[in-house]
Design goal:
Blueprint (H helix, E strand, L loop, with lengths): L1 H4 L5 H7 L15 H13 L5 E5 L7 H13 L6 E5 L1 H7 L2 H9 L7 E4 L5
Parallel strand pairs: 1-2, 1-3
Helix pairs in contact: 3-4
Length: 121
């Protein structure tokens, strides 16, 4: 999946940064919570998009991994990009997700929106 999504030619760098090289050959269904979270961040970060949305990107990560994940997300910052970092639980209590997504994407090409919604419950 990472090879298919690698629009920014960043797979090798992100796999090293997010410590995914040791699990790169595993099936997604066999990944632990932290591995899955780092994989989700990588899948989003290797794509070109105008909007990047991350749901609880630090879930299931240790302190070192949280810092690396934050650096990866920060590296995506550009003046023409939008970010949404949120807790889906809080968002659902306040507004419906579809309403939030509609408001965010109403004036943007929705083909260039990347999501990371993988916290494992």
């Amino acid at each position: 999946m990472l090879d298919q999504k690698d629009e920014r030619d960043m797979k090798a760098e992100l796999c090293a940064d997010l410590e995914l090289n040791q699990v790169i050959d595993r099936n997604v269904g066999d990944l632990s919570g932290g591995e899955l979270q780092r994989f989700a961040i990588a899948v989003v970060a290797i794509q070109n998009a105008e909007i990047y949305m991350f749901d609880e990107p630090s879930s299931y990560l240790d302190v070192k991994q949280r810092l690396k994940a934050a650096q990866v997300v920060r590296s995506l910052l550009r003046p023409n990009r939008f970010f949404a970092l949120f807790s889906i639980t809080i968002c659902l209590k306040m507004l419906s997700v579809s309403y939030v997504l509609h408001q965010i994407t109403s004036n943007i090409n929705t083909e260039s929106v990347c999501f990371s919604l993988f916290p494992v419950m």
